[in-house]
Amino acid sequence: MLDDYQQLVDEISAALGAPATLENRDFGLIAFGAQDGGRDLDESDEADGADEPALDPVRTRSILRRRSTAAVRAWFEGFGIARAQAPLRIPPDPGAGVFMGRICLPVRHRGVVHGYVWLLDDGHLSDLELGGPAGPPDPRLARAMETAARIGALLAAEARADEELGRMLRDLLIGEPGGRDAARTALRAALRGAADGPLALVAVTPWAPGDGADAVDYRSARLPSPPGVAAVCVLAGAGPAVPAGPMASLAALVRLRASTALDPARTAAERLLRSPEAAARAAAPGSGAGTGRGGGFAGVSEPRRGLDDLPAAWPEALAAARAARADPRLGPVAEWSAIGPYRLLAALPARAGPDPAVRALLEPSHAELARTAEAFLDCAGQASRTAQALGIHRQTLYYRLSRVEQLTGLDLDAGEDRLLLHMALKSARL
Question: Do 358 and 332 meet the contact criterion of CB atoms below 8 Å apart?
């Protein structure tokens, strides 16, 4: 539909004599009209303190990066654009990087906002009547709003198609066995040739934390879909190995260029993590993202050829996301092939809890001892390497390890005891 959007944006630009930009409601760029008047703004313009840059920097960066920043989004939303039923005039604010005023045309369909058309106002639109108690809108603006309504209908149709793809993917991944065949057939028909090519699943967790409501409450929200993502859905509960609760995960089906290259999946994962939705949900109370690193975490499955093996790929992606959350060395995006022992540990039932031998060591008051024991085992029991990694004297290390043995009753000279302790500590991270 890109050509359709571009044509409609060009119609608005021509009708009002101002460059127009179309963004979806997540501030992702869809189409833009040409802006006359000189060179593009680069970083040196701002560094030099230019008073009148040739192009508005917010618009320039939106075009170059295909998305507005979270700060820009928050600034514009502060004017009530998400609730607006009619055009809004937004003044310039150089302090916010908005050097030119805007007229925002909300793009709505059946009462739902699906995006925004932005018109740059360098002064020649100042006499444009927006309409209201003082009188009707300028006829040119009325025609532009009619075009915006056509854009809204297209965006709504696209959203319905995306939701249907998401439903198919959800049914294929976690649906009843009897319904998976039907979902696979429908998804194959919808994706056409892409269904047979190399694919990977991306899991983003946490996603859409709530207060215990069922997942159906999450599904009405429009989900981000970066380039290369064929289908996306939200799965309530992260899986059988994850404790019950309000946390959910986002699943994204990504097209790969080759079965040996996961770069498109990693890129999609990184973009999903940067989305305002991921950041807001990960920061929300009850999300479980208490690692102090901010945002969510993502995992990438092994590549698959076609749709048949996707149900087996989903636990891989989810385990990799959980491992990224557990171990800072892996995140924020981890691949299943690179998470080592977490491949086994993520499959263990979460409700089993820690092994009784290590339960006391995992108390918050013994966090330093647990960290020391894990570092010692990560260093293959080499005291000099461990002391250097922790920045402590070897005698301090030996003292701490003796305390670990007292707390756990394990013998760190015994291979099986060391294995038990090492896996218990890694499992506790999950």
Answer: no
Distance CA 34, CA 260 (A): 40
Strands 112-121 and 88-90: unpaired
d(CA 12, CA 22): 10
The pLDDT of residue 179: 85
Separation between Cα atoms, residue 131 and residue 136, nearest integer Å = 4
**Cβ atoms of 128 and 114 closer than 8 Å:** no
Percent of the chain at pLDDT above 70? 77
Average pLDDT taken over every residue of the chain: 81
The pTM of this model reads: 0.70
* Cα–Cα distance measured from residue 256 to residue 304, given in angstroms and rounded to the nearest whole number: 9
**Overall size of the chain counted in residues:** 430
Note every long-range contact of 54-62, with CB atoms under 8 Å and residues 24 or more positions apart, other chains counting. 56/98, 56/99, 56/100, 56/120, 57/97, 57/99, 58/96, 58/97, 58/98, 58/99, 59/19, 59/21, 59/32, 59/35, 59/100, 59/118, 59/120, 62/21, 62/23, 62/27, 62/29
Q: Which amino acid is at 267?
A: T
Q: Are 116 and 108 in contact (CB under 8 A)?
A: no
Confidence of residue 10 (pLDDT cuts 50, 70, 90): very high
Mapping DSSP to helix (H, G, I), strand (E, B) and coil, where does residue 30 land?
strand
Q: 């959350």: which residue's tokens?
A: 325
Give the separation between CA 253 and CA 307, rounded to whole angstroms: 10
138 pLDDT band (50/70/90 cuts)?
confident
Beta bridge partners of 231: 253
Q: Are strands 198-207 and 304-305 parallel, antiparallel or unpaired?
A: antiparallel
Which tens digits make up the pLDDT trace of 382-421? 999 999 999 999 999 999 999 999 999 999 999 999 999 9
CB 417 within 8 A of CB 347: no
Q: What is the mean pLDDT of residues 56-62?
A: 64
Nearest to 104 by CA among 181, 170, 27: 27
Before 94, cis peptide (omega within 30)?
no
Q: Report the C-alpha dihedral over residues 233, 337, 293, 287, rounded to 10 degrees.
A: 40
pLDDT value of residue 308: 92
For the chain, state the CA radius of gyration.
26
What would the pLDDT profile of 16-37 be if each residue is shown by its tens digit? 888 899 998 878 888 887 655 4
Q: Looking at residue 212, what is its pLDDT?
A: 34
Longest dimension (CA), the chain: 86
